[in-house]
Write a structure and sequence with these properties.
The chain is built from 4 helices and 16 strands. By secondary structure, it is α/β, with parallel strands linked by helices. A 7-stranded antiparallel β-sheet has the order 4-3-7-1-2-6-5. The structure holds flavin-adenine dinucleotide and FE2/S2 (inorganic) cluster (FES).
Amino acid sequence: MPNISKISLEIRSNEPLNRNCFRLEMCGDGIPAFSPGQFVQLGIPGKFLKRPISVCDADGEHIVLIYKAVGEGTEILSGLSGGSRLELLAPLGRGFSAEACKRSALLTGGGLGSAPLLFLCKTLLGAGKKVNAVLCFNTAADVVLADEYKKLDVEPQIVTLDGSMGIKGYATDAVFPGHDFFYTCGPLPMMRAVCNTLPGPGQASMEERMGCGAGYCYGCTIKTADGPARVCADGPVFDKDKLLW
Ligand SMILES: Cc1cc2nc3c(=O)[nH]c(=O)nc-3n(C[C@H](O)[C@H](O)[C@H](O)COP(=O)(O)OP(=O)(O)OC[C@H]3O[C@@H](n4cnc5c(N)ncnc54)[C@H](O)[C@@H]3O)c2cc1C
Ligand code: FES
């Protein structure tokens, strides 16, 4: 098992990005190094089980998470303000392999899957790789982080299901071959369609309900070409050819 730390961090800001998505920035000592695609288990006041949230950005002093308020835990989280403290387990999981991309990568994010891919985008650009990004949402009001990609000089292709922004349709209406590696994170049907559409090698970040989040309870097990695998510890990122969907 990798070195997992329990850390206590102070909320620096917890701001809405749209009607139900929030940007949570925390700071403090003991923040470990993360690779893109790794996640934290975030303790929520009053909740026994921690909630898994992907890392959107991190350095030794800050960590940024983007989350959607979908249930009790994330609703409680959205009500917390600067100065409150949260407990985290980190770093968790196996992230994306930036080294697998030799020259150019296609990133395809669905909803908040765009958040860990932003971290990956920075890493790939920092290693001199070329990056194209396709970001998919239900409607224009759901679009998040597009400006953050633009700040990195990556003009994301926006796709909305209802056509209210960018291309109307699905991720598969916008993804295109010509990259030596692709990475995807988002709803499972979108990732499956992207993996089936793009001929080359790639990786997808899987999502399962989690108990411990650290490899002990086997509650997040999926079937893969290599046998049963725990999304939290053997993933969440898996090679395309290992996924049985
Ligand atoms: C590896 C990983 C990374 C994640 N990264 C992010 C992230 O960056 N941002 C973010 O907003 N969310 C992320 N999630 C999902 C997040 O963990 C859940 O939305 C959160 O735990 C919901 O907690 P809750 O108490 O608000 O909702 P609950 O009351 O527990 O559930 C509310 C609704 O959300 C659904 N739900 C809860 N957990 C999951 C899950 N893991 N997968 C699919 N549906 C779920 C439930 O079925 C229910 O419909 C990630 C999940 C995993 C496994
Ligand atoms: S959630 Fe416990 S092993 Fe994955």
